[in-house]
Amino acid sequence: MALELKQLRSMRSLNAALKEARSEVIEEIIEKLETILQERREEEKRNQEDEASRRANVQDMKNFMAERNITIHDLMEEFHCGPKKRGPMKPKYRYVDLEGIERTWTGQGMTPVQFSALMEATHTTKEDYRLTPEEQQRLFEEEQKNRQSRQD
Q1: What are phi and psi of 104, to 5 degrees?
Q2: Is the pTM for the entire model greater than 0.85?
Q3: Domain total in the chain
Q4: Closest of 139, 143, 47, 54 to residue 93, by C-alpha
Q5: Which of 40, 56, 118, 142 measures 20 to 30 Å from 17, CA to CA?
Q6: pLDDT in tens, 2-35
Q7: Same structural domain for residues 116 and 98?
Q8: Does residue 98 sit in the same domain as residue 142?
Q9: What's the burial of 126, exposed, middle or buried (CB within 10 Å: 0-12/13-18/19+)?
């Protein structure tokens, strides 16, 4: 009969499980439990020592960085760990919405409401509005030029 941890913690359950066991068997079980307990204590002590050492090392590093005026952002920049900045994406779809305005969509995120309304009204799918790779590149370059001229 396999005992759960909850049962092992209960005197009544232990007594019932060991009711027919001889005292030698119970002593053998106790020895095994003591061995397990000793190993567990040693492991916990090692883990505590490792954590204390890690915390000390982290504090040493923080002091080292403070002495040299180095920030965590400097390290992130050096190791390219910061948030990835994604540039503008090429449009994948071009459509004229129900109001007659020409729009593009990259295909990222939720489908624009105007695009969904257009497809529902005309019984079409996204694929009907997909741009060829050449059209995608041309529109992307046009949008880049427009962005550049607005910044100037």
Answers
A1: -125, 160
A2: no
A3: 2
A4: 139
A5: 40
A6: 668 887 888 888 888 888 999 999 999 999 999 9
A7: yes
A8: yes
A9: middle
